[in-house]
Amino acid sequence: MKIKKVLVSQPKPASEKSPYYDIAEKYGVKIDFRPFIKVESVSAKEVRQQKVSILDHTAVIFTSRHAIDHFFHLCTELRVTIPETMKYFCVTEQIALYIQKYVQYRKRKIFFGATGKIEDLIPSIVKHKTEKYLVPMSDVHNDDIKNLLDKHNVQHTEVVMYRTVSNDFGEGEEFDYDMLVFFSPAGVSSLKKNFPDFDQKNIKIGTFGSTTAQAVRDAGLRLDLEAPTVQAPSMTAALDMFIKENNKGK
């Protein structure tokens, strides 16, 4: 079956120069953007129930922009004034630069890794071992960061500040796609929640990341496209190749 309409479970790209628009024009395909999940803050009450005092800490570790947004939002809600001496450790430079939305960017108090992996940030954290670290995280998380910090005897506290929830489809909202593209296991769960009787039939499913691919298989669905690969390191590169091959001669 020729792919004519694709649902990408991410927010619409901010730039008109996104490769997704190039794919749409190149193959005459309609691409819609609609996240299957959304991220929301936990309440100030829920933070208090975790018995974590933000001001007992001298540094914060951020793994995403979501973590930054919800940390500063909750600080405002809790009426906590962050001291200028607070240090910030981010897994990438892009996340570090995003902090400018909330605080003045000063290199002496903002540190970042090069690869996006927490392991790459550990040397900077260990250099500042006397700090007391706070790690804002989602309600759904693994213990990789905790285990690494424990291994290096770094003082730290994890605090759940945001949660991932299903972004439900409204009644009558069209769902007539030839292909679905997912980026997280939560997105796959949301599909099953919104459409409990979902019958895949000829609908193609693509995923980015091994855990999302496994979530599709665990849900009893057929996985048609898995990225990244050596030939296609990005989802757009993989999608381009897949649509080209699938629509050939149809």
From TrEMBL:
GO terms for biological process: uroporphyrinogen III biosynthetic process. InterPro entries: 4pyrrol_syn_uPrphyn_synt_sf, 4pyrrol_synth_uPrphyn_synth, UROS/Hem4. It comes from the Bacteria. Gene3D superfamilies: 3.40.50.10090. GO terms for cellular component: cytosol. CDD domains: HemD. GO terms for molecular function: uroporphyrinogen-III synthase activity. Residues 24-236 form the Tetrapyrrole biosynthesis uroporphyrinogen III synthase domain. Pfam families: HEM4 (PF02602). PANTHER family: UROPORPHYRINOGEN III SYNTHASE, UROPORPHYRINOGEN-III SYNTHASE. This is Tetrapyrrole biosynthesis uroporphyrinogen III synthase domain-containing protein. The lineage of its organism: Bacteria, Pseudomonadati, Bacteroidota, Bacteroidia, Bacteroidales.
